[in-house]
Design a protein that fits this description.
The chain is of the alpha/beta class. Helix content is 40%, strand content 19%. It starts with a helix and ends in a 7-residue tail after the last strand.
């Protein structure tokens, strides 16, 4: 806690207001080098407080007297941009720090109006940021810090060139900060090209978070029957369920089939416009719907409180995807249940995945709407 007390008074007050007792491992390890202005590449599991780990030092360094943009934060999805902005507003309260978001697909004229208010911090998707820089609307000559949130999603072919150009447009002695829940060797290699003598910080498991059990179970069904399993799952008591579906077409079909059964669900995918996405998230967050159907891209980095169940409707294709999806529940030590819906062939793949991740997955079935241990009836 000494670390928080070394930060500006407005941060200390907002920390007190938040009710947080302890800082997490990633915060403890990254805040000091970030305050010193060092470049940092950090990896920490989903739900361990990565956003605050970079945000608190960033807010602490802001000069509110200046009219220039001092920091830029890049994120791969509109939702993540909006989420970071809301954290900035919460933690920057009482500081006079101005922040603005810029996302693809949004009204350009309105975005230019935001720039007239001289934000100190901008949070952007890479494409829109680069577009505004090229138009000389986003002036980067005083930007001291560049943050890449969910860096592994930004250092992909689609965004890599834009990210490099954005970093290049900032001050020579800039600070570059990369955070991710999973840091592959390839991502780390690409990241090292963007930084100077960075500290690489890895937190595999956060010991400061009182981890309750996140259990992993599965149901077996033919692919066409998977949707039938979502019905009893949706009726589980006090459930707030995030369902991962591989492609948009199938996701829409699943929502329609649930609708026939009078099960209201929200959906999130990249073909929806900004208003539709916001409405879906609002309905899910407020509890108007208790099931959110999402593709991986759309749900990446989203922080939705109190998700009780994560459902892999389509099996994760690799360890990273399984970890990212599953990490949406059991955040900050809460309990959670991860459910995979698998065909007979996928069952073998899931067991292999579980073995690699050193987790146990138990087969279950439904009985009178309750989840019960699976009994192999063929042996009776």
């Amino acid at each position: 806690m000494q670390l928080i007390q070394s930060l500006k008074p407005f941060i200390q007050q907002n920390w007190e207001k938040s009710g947080f007792k302890n800082i997490t491992s990633i915060q403890e390890k990254t805040i000091p080098p970030l305050l010193e202005g060092k470049d940092v590449i950090a990896e920490s599991p989903t739900g361990t407080g990565k956003t605050l780990a970079y945000l608190l030092p960033l807010l602490n360094k802001m000069d509110t007297e200046s009219k220039s943009i001092q920091a830029i934060c890049l994120a791969s999805s509109q939702e993540l941009v909006m989420q970071i902005l809301s954290e900035v507003q919460k933690w920057g309260e009482g500081s006079g720090i101005r922040a603005a978001s810029f996302i693809g697909g949004a009204n350009v004229k309105r975005q230019l109006e935001k720039l007239k208010k001289h934000p100190h911090l901008v949070i952007c998707t890479p494409g829109r940021a680069l577009e505004l820089i090229k138009q000389k609307k986003l002036k980067m000559h005083e930007v001291k810090t560049v943050v890449l949130d969910e860096a592994d999603q930004l250092l992909v072919a689609e965004h890599l060139d834009s990210v490099k150009q954005i970093i290049k447009s900032t001050l020579k002695d800039r600070q570059v900060v990369l955070f991710s829940a999973t840091l592959t060797q390839r991502t780390e290699q690409l990241a090292e090209e963007l930084v100077q003598e960075a500290e690489i910080i890895r937190v595999k498991k956060d010991e400061t978070i009182d981890s309750k059990e996140v259990n992993h179970i599965y149901f077996q069904a033919e692919y066409r029957d998977k949707v039938k399993l979502l019905e009893p799952i949706s009726r589980l008591e006090k459930a707030k369920i995030l369902v991962f579906v591989k492609d948009i077409g199938n996701l829409t079909v699943v929502q329609e089939k649930l609708g026939y059964k009078n099960i209201q669900s929200s959906m999130l995918h990249s073909d929806l416009n900004k208003m539709e996405r916001q409405k879906s998230l609002r309905n899910f967050r407020s509890g108007k719907t208790n099931m959110l159907l999402a593709t991986d891209v759309a749900a990446r980095g989203l922080d939705i409180a109190n998700i009780t169940h994560v459902v892999h409707y389509d099996l994760a294709t690799n360890q990273t995807q399984y970890i990212h999806r599953s990490g949406r529940t059991g955040r900050f030590g809460a309990e959670g249940l991860v459910i995979s819906l698998v065909t007979q062939r996928e069952e073998r793949e899931l067991k292999q995945l579980a073995k690699e991740l050193k987790i146990s997955v138990a087969r279950k079935s439904f009985y009178h709407g309750e989840i019960v241990d699976y009994k192999d009836r063929s042996t009776n």
